[in-house]
Write a structure and sequence with these properties.
heterotrimer; B: about 290 residues; mainly alpha; two-stranded antiparallel sheet; globular; C: about 240 residues; alpha/beta; Rossmann fold; six-stranded mixed β-sheet; 10 strands; about 25% strand; binds adenosine-5'-triphosphate; binds magnesium ion
Amino acid sequence: MSTDTAIAGPADQTDANRSRRIFLGIIIVATLAFPLLQVFFGGFSYWLHMALFLYMNIAIASSWNIIGGFAGYISLGHNVFFAIGGYSAAILFAYFGVSPFIAFPLCGLISMGFGFIIGMMTLRTRGPTFIISTIALVLLAKILLDNWDYIGGSNGISLPLLDMPVEYVKLPFYYAMLAIAAGSVFLGYSVRRWKFGLGLRAISQDETKAEVAGIPTRFYKTLAFALSGLFIGMAGALWGYYLTYLSPAIFLTILVGAKFVLMTILGGRGTISGPIVGAIIFISANEFFVAQFGATELNIVATGVLLLLVLMFFPEGIVGTLKRNGKLPAILDWD
Amino acid sequence: MTQAIQILIIGLTLGGVFALMASGLTLIFGVMGIVNLAHAAFMVAAAFISFFAYKGLGLDPIASIVLTMPVMFVVGLVVYRLFFARSIDDPKKRSVLVLVTFAMALVIEGTLGFFFSNIYRSTNPPYAYDAFLMGPFYLPKGQFYATLMSALILGALWAMLRFTRLGYAIRATTHNRTAAEVVGVNVDRVSMFVFGIGMALAGASGSMISFLFSFYPGKHWEWVAILLSLVVLGGMGSLLGALIGALSLSVISAFVNSAYGPTWSPVTFYLALFAILLIRPQGLLGKKPEL
Amino acid sequence: MPHLVVKDVVAGYGSGPDILTGLSLDVEEGKSYCIVGPNGAGKSTLLKAICGLVNIRNGTIDFEGETLLGLRADQVLQRGICFVPQDRSLFPDMTVRENLRMGGYILKDRNEVERRIDEVFEMFPILKERASQHAKTMSGGQQQQLLLGRALVLRPKVVMLDEPSLGLAPKVSKQIFDSMNQLKDAGITIIVVEQNARMGLGYCDWGCVLDLGKLVFEGASRTVLDDPRMAELYLGTRRTGSEK
Ligand SMILES: Nc1ncnc2c1ncn2[C@@H]1O[C@H](COP(=O)(O)OP(=O)(O)OP(=O)(O)O)[C@@H](O)[C@H]1O
Ligand SMILES: [Mg+2]
């Protein structure tokens, strides 16, 4: 088998490249054109909602992957970035009248800035202390926001609806989330190919050796942590506006952060397509569970059980496992 | 001044219980290198056992450790065999074990929430509402008994570690896993027992919190974050460090509580965690991080 | 008569590559063996394989006519084979006496352990002086003596030492090797891995040269030292294709 592929190698390579390019083209056209269905026929509101929700989660999973996948530092508190993005957009909108559609890149940068500061503190150590600090971060952020009256405290803050005909109101969100998802995936793809990405992977394998090899490990980790907050912050900015209501209970429960982790690990952390596959499967399953059981308690159980099963049986996730067995379709192999 | 002493009394007596809660966590980390994020979830599960034993059988919550400790011990052995035994020596799998404990915490939380719903509960033995009066000071009886019991259990744990064969094996494995293996310690068996003992300690803690605090399934995240903070402060894996961390942070948080109200007392722990990360990442008594 | 027989052993870590690639070695009772070879040759792995710390994928290891395969580290210890690893595997926060007690961990009789600790103290008086001091506060040479003493608590038939002289001054290394020879005179078989081939071979009866997971050649210490293949291995003139 190995000789076969070795001989067929170059041809296969171009084949794979062509099929990847065609696949990518189809995806781009399809996602851009999809809302036309709503414009011309109507009745696709639910599907638009699902699609933009999916894009958001792709953005989140791909971002989490930078620190949790490439660098191997598991963060259970990335929903803090989600909240920072959401609340900074809400403040800019409610108090300064800046639409989140204009402000969202800034909100992403704000959350990235917070990421840098937090990372400088929590990434001073190796190993388990970081994970602990991410849990503490969520709980701390929740207490702070619950008691910050300026933004409504635990009652939350309401935002006005986007002023558009109701059948079109989802379209701007759709395209914005699509752009965010594309940006996030592209960032992951680039990081993976930069020297920086190589350094992160060295860190995840053996941090001591990476350091000895001259990689500025602390700076790299911190930068990875901050970068992974960028697009999550943007997603949060628009998500709050989309819901027209933000409260700490929506953004800052452990369950929210747990789902970020689950999606990425399910798909395959450390890969490019893994977070996308993970998000698609997870969102479909989640929709099924919510429709089926409704209750948040069972949602928590399902999240936990799924995570357990993945960790015990496919710790490398779907894409990682397929890749190791040589069964990964070329269109999913972007690494 | 009187008030300060009063707060100190409250803080110290609560600190004893926090030390009990943290002991299992730090013991397991020391031997296996795993942060058990489900520790407080198991505590809450044990609190439910105490709760129903109290409501159903009239069993006193402190006495109910005769139920919670053995039950949780066995649960610990089973959990270790199912989830940890095969992964612990494989560096690749080892790195995801902390996520396994995270997932377990979610499963326990969701299951308890589903069956018993997320309402506040607590056992209410008469001493939970009573206090000893000593001049200008008062000492809540519930806290006093709980701390006494915690001290007893921690004392027994200390003696076990100090004087028994298993204790030697546990300490040896904590200090140097390969060295322990080389002198013939069966580290797999030791790890299993330690997980069981850690869970039994979580069980005892659950019985204590069943009357000290009101609890509900989702509450465990707050507790586990508090416990982890004080364990990090003391130095991961160090029992004495956990004790020092528990007493000091508990006293500080008691002062914060009286000055700013109960909302902000958990914040003390989280801020202490971030502060210690800045100043001395390995904790007060922790080993220096490699390199 | 060989009492420890290693035959065609293939071994490696986890699911990684084979580190030992078909290694055979006969060890005779009461003699001392020095194992030399370049870094990464598999010297430490060989010792770990003998004492049950590495999975053996193929081949056999017999001791006194019975196989050691499938035994856990503590069971190999029961048979009388002790191992002193390369990385100063002490219990840093335990006292010297407690460390020695840990050496007798597999013995059930505590009084017996205390008696044997006294014997060790006779051999290494410095340990008695420092009995209640924490192991981490001892110097490198003292730590090495403690490690040796800890292995002796079991009154082993075979003692395996992995680079005992690592990081020690020549004079201190000499002391360690002298104590080692004392053990040999008491009838204990010694297997020692040593980077400083000249010194190691000088103290031992027999030399074994390892490279790439195999025994390349062996012989009486003196002949090994003077063998031209040694220079090849150590000076890096090998693997240029000239070997064929
Ligand atoms: N715990 C381990 N896990 C995986 N591989 C290992 C482990 N220990 C050693 N190896 C690998 O096994 C090979 C041989 O290592 P070993 O320690 O046996 O060499 P050595 O001859 O003792 O070298 P040195 O003189 O440097 O001590 C090396 O390539 C090393 O990378
Ligand atoms: Mg070696």
